[in-house]
# Entry
Amino acid sequence: MPNKVGATNASTAGGAAGTGIAAAGTGAAEAAGEAAWQRQIGALVSETTKVTERDLQLRVVSTELTSIKKVADERVQ
# Structure
């Protein structure tokens, strides 16, 4: 009978160690997921900034062309 108790204690200890390793693995996976999320957010912010700058450039050009067209139309009349 003592062997069974010792075996049970060893199994419990092994199971606890396995649980600890699994928890560490889960924590590492969560950290990796968080890092990937932060990279995606960073990429999104970067692309949004580029698109906003491009939009402003296009608005400036559009405004300048509209002004030039108005001046040309006034000269024709």
The first helix runs from residue 2 to 76. The CA atoms of residues 33 and 39 lie 10 Å apart. The mean pLDDT is 80.
